[in-house]
Each structure stands twice: as structure tokens, then as C-alpha cells.
Design goal:
Beta-Lactamase, six-stranded antiparallel beta sheet, single chain, 8 helices, elongated, alpha+beta
Length: 319
């Protein structure tokens, strides 16, 4: 009988061990799920950035190759440049989804030649604060990325203008990144473009914009419900872990770096918390199923051992 006491003791020990193992396994699965979902959000962001780059660089190259654009730079003829850009803008509006084209042409000595949206402002030296333009002048290679301006973070595609193998200037095709909000919404994702508070001395038009922790909202199109929920999250935890789970949303992020490699802001990405909970419940059920199978197997072994013990004891006693 004393030996039989070992069986309930073993069962109790196994119960405690199984609970600890299940808890550990679930936490491990939860971390894997969080990392997978954060990766999924970032993958969607990369897709949109790639599309924006293809669109921006292609349009910039197409406009920069226009003979009249080159001629206007070679002969310092702003009227020709303006007339040509207005014609191109009309073609874009008629044939593409770009209804308000923003193009900035720069001279070879990095001065503003024509701003399509502000025709009376030109001649200012851009070399002191537009590092991407200087970079294109030096490398003769296209640039794509976010730059900080008075309006906040703006997506810019800058290409060199080459004539007879000589650099004669550069052209900038400016996009906002707001289309991603509608695209994300169709997939039940959410998005905000956030700029670091320390850059408000440059992004002067954002001084009254909503604050989110150490950031300021740079998006022009956004979901107000998502914005208010995002103002409550722990950005330190988000930065530390790479993700953050609130009652309403699961968040991930990606840093935005300027031309110097400094962090200028973040892409804040999210999906509904309900979707994440469904995935976590599925992971939890898998862990429970695994532990249940192991428990069943062990109980079968213990049952067989107990039965053998009783049979052997009974045989000995009958003798």
C-alpha cells in the first residue's frame, strides 16, 4: 500500500509541472504571435513604401527627361519651366490619380528654380537645410525618403537632371503618405505618421498638432478614434519590445530616419486587439491540446503500471 501512495504523489507532481509547462508554453507562443503580427504590419508598410518609391522615382525621372525642362534650366527660363510643368500637371490630372502635382526644380548650384505650388518663391539657397538635394548633386543618384519640412514629414523623390552627361540641376516629386490610411483601413489596419517633438523648430506648422507621447502627429488624414486610443499607449514599452497591446489595438512601429541617419519620427502601425486575441486563443488551445495529449499518455502508462503492480501483488498473496 505504501508504494501505491507514490501514484497520487506522482499525479500531483505532474499536475503542478503540467500547469507550469503550459503557462511557459503559452507565454512563448504569445511572444511568437506578437512578433509575427508585428512583422505582418511592417510587411504591409514596406509594400506601400515600395509602391510610393516606384511611383515617385518613375514620375520624377519622366518629368526630368522632358526637353523643355532641361532647356529651361540651361537658359534660366522660368517661364518655360512653369508652362511645361502646368501642361504636365494637367496631363497627370486627366490620366492618373495625381490631381495636385507637387514638383520642385532645383538649379545645379542647389537653388530653388520653380516650385509648382508656389511660383513666386524661387532663388533661395537650399544647400543649408536640404541635405538630400546636396546628396543628389554629389552622387547623381536618385533619392527617396522622408524629409522634415515646415509641414512635417514629407515623402520626396529627387532625381538628377542630366544633359549631355552634365549635371544641370535636380527635380523633386513630392508625395504625401496619406493614401496608406485608406489602404490600411481596407485591410483593417490603422496608421499614423509621427514626427519627433524635437523637430518642431523646423516643422513650424505642426505646433498645434496633437501630441502622442514624445511625438507630434504629422499625418493630414487619420482616424480620430485611432488617434485618441494611440495617445494613451506606453511608447517606452513599444520601443523596448517592438510592439504594444492595448484594450483596443495591437501596435508595432518602424523608425523614420533622415538623410543623416538620425531618427526623425516613426510609422505607427496597428490592428484591432480582437483579431490578436483570436490568434492568442488559438495558440492557447493548441497548448492545452498538447498538454492534454501528454497527460492522457502518462495516465495510460501509470494505469498500466498500477494494474501490473496489482496483478503481481495479487499473485504473490495467492501463493
Amino acid at each position: 500500500m505504501k508504494k501505491l501512495i507514490f501514484i497520487p504523489a506522482a499525479i500531483t507532481f505532474y499536475g503542478v509541472f503540467s500547469f507550469m509547462y503550459a503557462s511557459y508554453s503559452f507565454e512563448e507562443e504569445k511572444q511568437k504571435s506578437y512578433e509575427k503580427l508585428a512583422k505582418e504590419l511592417k510587411h504591409e508598410l514596406q509594400n506601400e513604401k515600395r509602391f510610393a518609391k516606384d511611383r515617385g522615382i518613375t514620375n520624377a525621372i519622366s518629368i526630368s527627361e522632358n526637353a523643355d525642362i532641361k532647356r529651361s534650366l540651361l537658359h534660366n527660363n522660368r517661364k518655360l519651366a512653369i508652362k511645361t510643368l502646368q501642361k504636365i500637371e494637367k496631363n497627370f490630372a486627366d490620366r492618373t490619380s495625381v490631381k495636385h502635382m507637387k514638383v520642385h526644380i532645383h538649379t545645379k548650384d542647389t537653388r530653388a528654380f520653380v516650385r509648382s505650388w508656389k511660383l513666386n518663391k524661387f532663388g533661395d539657397d537650399l544647400s543649408g537645410f536640404r541635405k538630400a538635394i546636396v546628396e543628389v548633386k554629389i552622387t547623381h543618384e536618385p533619392f527617396f525618403g522622408f524629409e522634415v519640412g515646415r509641414m512635417g514629414l514629407t515623402l520626396r523623390s529627387i532625381v538628377p537632371i542630366i544633359d549631355n552627361e552634365k549635371f544641370i540641376g535636380s527635380l523633386e516629386f513630392i508625395q504625401n503618405f496619406d493614401k496608406i490610411v485608406k489602404i490600411f483601413k481596407r485591410k483593417e489596419y490603422s496608421y499614423l505618421l509621427l514626427i519627433d517633438k524635437s523637430l518642431l523648430n523646423v516643422a513650424k506648422y505642426l505646433k498645434e498638432a496633437p501630441e502622442l507621447g514624445p511625438y507630434i502627429l504629422s499625418s493630414r488624414i487619420f482616424d480620430m478614434k485611432f488617434l485618441k486610443a494611440s495617445q494613451k499607449i506606453d511608447f517606452q514599452a513599444l520601443k523596448k519590445d517592438g510592439y504594444f497591446m492595448s484594450d483596443q489595438y495591437f501596435y508595432a512601429y518602424e523608425d523614420i530616419k533622415d538623410t543623416k541617419g538620425s531618427i526623425a519620427g516613426i510609422h505607427l502601425l496597428a490592428m484591432p486587439a480582437q483579431r490578436v486575441r483570436k490568434e492568442l486563443n488559438a495558440a492557447k488551445n493548441e497548448v492545452i491540446k498538447m498538454v492534454a495529449m501528454q497527460t492522457l499518455f502518462i495516465f495510460l502508462i501509470l494505469g498500466v503500471l498500477a494494474l501490473l503492480y496489482l496483478l503481481i501483488s495479487s499473485a504473490r498473496n495467492s501463493k
